[in-house]
Amino acid sequence: MAPRLERFVSPGKGNGVRATAGIKRGELVYSAEPLAGCVSNKVARDVCHHCFTRRETLLRCSQCKMARYCNSTCQKQAWSGHKRECKCLQSLRPRIPTDSVRLAARLIFAMLSPSKSSSEDLYSLEEHESHLSSMSEQKKQGLSQLASMLELYLQQGVPDHAQEMTSALPPSCREPLSLIAKVTCNCFTISDGELQEIGVGLYPSLSLLNHDCRPNCVMVFEGTKLQLRAVQDINPEEELTISYIETLSLTEDRQRQLEDQYHFTCHCQNCDSQDKDRLMLSGEKSTWRLLKEALPRLEALKAESNWQALLESWSHLLSTVGGEVPDENLYKLKMTDMALDASIHLGNWEDAVGYGEKTLPVYRQYYPDPHPAHGVQLMRVGKLQHYLEHIEDALDTFKEAYQIIKVTHGDDHPMTTELLMKMEECRAEMVQQSSETQPHKNLCIDPMLM
Ligand SMILES: [Zn+2]
Ligand SMILES: [Zn+2]
Ligand SMILES: [Zn+2]
Question: In what order do the strands lie in the sheet with 197-202?
Answer without folding.
Answer: 36-39, 197-202, 188-191
